[in-house]
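(Protein data)
===
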Amino acid sequence: MTQDDRADKFDIADERVRVDLLPSHPLVEIAKVLTHGAGKYGADNWRRGLEWRRYYGAVMRHMLAWEGGEDLDPDSGLSHLACAGCNVLFLIEMARTRPDLDDRFKYKAELIGDSDVKVRYLPRSPLQTGGIAHGADPDTDS
């Protein structure tokens, strides 16, 4: 079969997203994490959303366990990397669909002199309650 015998398809030229570039094995590993979660909490429970820092905390716990030499999550028996990846996907989706659950500490770096940087904490979101006062700097305010 020559190039002339094949059908024309202009999907690359029009800059469509190349989902064929995604590696399939990691996607299947993340799907295993979702399958485990569906059995525990319900298939689409995650879509209801959580405060973003809950997802971030899960990502960090899985990454720290993996960095410490533990490959598999003891609760699920699944890859810590896949569990972390799943929570990163959740965060990406929450950023798109649930900005109301954004409870990150916001800050802005400001230059002081030639090379010093001061971090100024911005007012906290309504979701953040207790602990540090709104707009407080946790390094200087108590």
In short: The chain has a mean pLDDT of 83. The helical segments are 24-41, 52-67, 80-97.
